[in-house]
Amino acid sequence: MKKRGEGFGYIANNITELVGNTPMVKISDKICPPGRTIYAKCEYFNPLSSVKDRLAVAIVEDLEKQGKLKPGDTLVEATSGNTGIAIAMVAAQRGYKCVITMAESFSIERRKVMRMLGAKVIVTPKGLMAKGMVDKAIELCEKNPSWHLCHQFESEANWKFHELTTGPEIVNDLKGQDFTHWVTGTGTGGTYHGAGKYIKEHSPHTKIIMVEPEGAALVASGISTPYNEDGTPSEDHPAWNPHPIQGWTPNFIPKVLEDGLPLDLHDEIVICPGSEGIKMAQALARNEGIFTGVSGGATVWGSVQVAKDAPEGSVIVTMIPDTAERYLSTPLFENISADMDEEEMAIAKSTPSAILDQ
Fold first, then answer.
1. CATH assignment of 52-149?
2. Is 97 buried (19+), middle (13-18) or exposed (0-12) by CB count in 10 A?
3. Can you give the pLDDT at residue 89?
4. Helices (H), 43-177
5. Which fold has domain 15-50+156-333?
6. Catalytic one among 52, 131, 136, 200?
7. Burial state string for 105-123 with b = 16 or more CB within 10 A and e = fewer than 16
8. Annotated catalytic residue, options 203, 295, 303, 314
9. Contact indicator for 232, 138 with CB cutoff of 8 Å
10. Cβ atoms 93, 61 nearer than 8 A
């Protein structure tokens, strides 16, 4: 590790150069079962605080290489939030316009962040779920020739970027240290497909564990999603039910994920109740100082279940996709008040000055 004060090492030409090379941190025995080790890869160290910064750079650069984008064109994406934020970042940096479609059930702070970055956010009815916002994005691009759908759920550039970056980062940071398990959730499936492919090739003994939400374990169901010619879903998945793990498992299996399944990358699927993801995210904040959302909590919860059943000495690497600041209006913060509680009020009154009258 670099010593504090040593500096980053170089000056970036623009913000997108800072995507990737995120750190891993050891989870303490306050959460990790004894005799096992859990390392968490903290993707909130990306510039816009989520793993989706990677796919945004990958997809936009791929569109540019194909000659499909010209100055002033509009990037369009359907998203639960983090991808839209990342696309808006890249659009702002490169001079493109940005339009995001987003179901109204997702957190409002994500809409505000995207609008802060200059994006237009089109909110779709929550009853139409993820497929509704995808259909809206497709319609908008069909109507406007200079509007380009980013296809986060279908683009090969998504998983290939993880194969080139996320997977090698994990293997290289462990510097030859044996790691027995790699645990990840799935949103688009890009991390699972790309990093999983690299890990299987370079550390074939490592077991890959997929974590899916309870009530929406689509891969575990064994039922595929039917697709249109462009890879977008043609109908909802019958095994999907609403769940609180935003960013995970839309109401279809994304093509990026589906294309990775025949590679037999994962050795096991762990099902996480949404309530456990929330509790673990809160536990990570209060015990580790790790500030992550429900998807990060759910992935670490899955890693703890794996560690409990793994042989002593096992080393588990897990993914923390984003920051808890994306979840302020969700159940993650439901029991966290902005006002002082009785204990805080007692502390305030323990000295005579500056006492707020609540």
1. 3.40.50.1100
2. middle
3. 98
4. 52-65, 82-94, 108-116, 129-143, 156-164, 166-173
5. Rossmann fold (3.40.50)
6. 52
7. bbbeebbebbeebebebeb
8. 295
9. yes
10. no
The edge-to-edge listing of strands for the beta sheet with 315-320 is 24-26, 37-42, 315-320, 181-185, 207-213, 268-272
List Cα–Cα distances, 251 to 107, 123, 273, 282, in angstroms: 18, 17, 17, 26
Give the chain's radius of gyration (CA, Å).
21
The yes-or-no answer on residue 28 being catalytic is no
CB atoms within 10 A of CB 104: 14
What's the confidence (pLDDT) of residue 193? 98
Please report, for the chain, the start and end positions of each structural domain, with discontinuous segments joined by +: 15-50+156-333, 52-149
- Most distant CA pair in the chain, distance: 71
- Axis crossing angle, helix 156-164 with helix 166-173, rounded to the nearest 10: 20
In eight-state DSSP terms, residue 1 is -
Sorted by sequence, the CB contacts under 8 Å of residue 281 that are 6+ apart come out as 292, 293, 294, 296, 297, 298, 324, 327, 332
Q: What is the pLDDT, as a whole number, of residue 131?
A: 87
Residue 60 has φ and ψ, to the nearest 5°, of -65, -45
**Do β-strands 181-185 and 97-103 pair in parallel, antiparallel, or remain unpaired?**
unpaired
Q: Kindly list the distances between the CA atom of residue 188 and the CA atoms of 97, 157, 232, 341, in Å, as whole numbers in the listed order.
A: 23, 12, 12, 40
Q: For 236, what's the count of Cα atoms within 13 Å in the CB-facing half-sphere?
A: 14
Angle at 329 between CA 19 and CA 210, to 5 degrees: 55
CA–CA distance, 244 with 228 (Å, rounded to integer): 28
Token pair in block for residue 145: 């020739």
pLDDT along the chain (358 residues), means of 10: 92 98 98 98 98 98 96 94 96 98 91 97 92 93 96 96 98 93 97 98 97 97 94 93 92 96 97 97 98 97 98 98 94 94 95 90
Q: Compute the distance between CA of residue 43 and CA of residue 198 in angstroms, rounded to an integer.
A: 18
Cα–Cα distances in Å, from 135 out to 112, 128, 138? 22, 10, 5
Tokens of 17: 């150069």
Known catalytic membership, residue 52: yes
CA separation for the pair 229, 26 (Å, rounded): 44
Which residue reads 């940096």 in tokens?
93
